[in-house]
Amino acid sequence: MVKNLDLLDADELINNLYSKFKNDEEILKKAYLYASEGHLNQKRASGEPYITHPLQVATYLADLSMDIETVVSAILHDLIEDTDVTFKDLKKEFGNEIANIVDGVTKLDKIQYNSNEEAQADAIRKMDIAMSKDIRVLILKLADRLHNIQTIQYLADYKQEKIANETLYVYAPLAHRLGLQNIKHILEDISFSLIFKNQNSEIENLIEKTAPDRDKNIKKSLKVIEDLLSAILYLQKLLEDQNIIIRYTKKLSIMV
User: Of the listed 82, 89, 122, 189, which one is catalytic?
Assistant: First the structure.
C-alpha cells in the first residue's frame, strides 16, 4: 500500500529507507548525499527542499517492495534533468544498471503530447518499449507522478490542468496496465477533481446524500450474511453430531 508521506522531512524519509533496507544502507546513504548535493539550492513549489521529492518517490517504491536498484534510482531520478549531473557521472558512481534506469525516466519526462488521444496511443507504445527494456523505469515514473499529483495544489492553475490531463489520460491507464490499482485510483481521483470540478462536486454531493441509506443497506446485508453463517455453522454441527451417532451405532451393531 502506497502512503502519502508529505509531513515527513528528509531525515525522516531517509531513515525510513534505512530501516527497510538494512543491508543496503551504504549505497542509500551515498545516493542521498549525492542527490542532496545536486539539488542543494533547489526548492519545490511548496517551499520544501527539493530532495524531499525524490526521497518520497523512493519511499513509495520501497512500499511496493521494489528492489534496491530501483529505490536508489528514485533518489537520483531528477539529477540528469535538473542539475549538471550527467549519465556518465551516474554510471561512474552507481553503475550501469542504476544509470540506465535514471536515464530511462529522464527520456520519458521529455515526451510532449498534443492531444489526449495521441497521449494515450503514444503512452501505450512507449510503455511496451520500456517494458521490453526495464519495467522498473515505468514503475519509478508512476511513483514520481503520484507524488507530483498529490502535491499539485502548490502550482499555478494552468499547470495543474496540464498535469491533471496528462495524468488522467496517460499515467492512470499505465498504472492500470501494470496492475498498480492503488496508484491508478489516486491518480484518477485527483486528476478528475481538477479537470471536471463541477461533475466531481455533483458526485461528492450525491455520495454524501446517499451515505445514510448506503450505510443502512450495508448493515442489513451484513446481518443477512451473519444469519446465513450462523445457519451454516448450525447445520454443520448437526451433521457432525449425526455422523458421530451413525459411527457409534455401527460400532454397537458390530459388538452385538
Answer: 82
| 49 grid coordinates | 527542499
Q: From the candidates 25, 37, 81, 227, give the one annotated as an active-site residue.
A: 81
Q: Active site includes 82?
A: yes
- Burial environment of residue 40 by CB neighbours within 10 A (0 to 12, 13 to 18, 19 or more): exposed
- Only one residue has cell 543491508, namely 23
Secondary structure of residue 114 in the 3-state scheme: coil
pTM: 0.78
What is the tens place of the pLDDT at every residue in 172-213?
988 998 899 999 999 999 999 999 987 877 887 777 777 777
Task: For residues 96 and 59, give the distance between their C-alpha atoms in angstroms, rounded to a whole number.
Answer: 22
Q: Which pLDDT value is given to residue 230?
A: 85
Burial category of 155 from C-beta neighbours within 10 Å (exposed 0-12, middle 13-18, buried 19 and up): middle
- Reference 38, options 70, 81, 7; nearest CA is 81
- Rounded-to-integer distance, Cα 190 and Cα 134, Å: 28
Give the CATH H-level superfamily of domain 10-195: Hypothetical protein af1432 (1.10.3210.10)
- Residue 140 has, within 13 A of its CA and on its CB side, a CA count of 33
Is 26 exposed, middle or buried (CB count within 10 Å of its CB: 0-12, 13-18, 19+)? exposed
Q: Report domain extents, the chain.
A: 10-195, 198-256
Which residues, including other chains, have CB under 8 Å from residue 193's CB and lie 6 or more apart?
A: 200
Q: Which three cell numbers stand for residue 214?
A: 448506503
Identify the bridge partners of residue 49 per DSSP, sorted by sequence position: 43
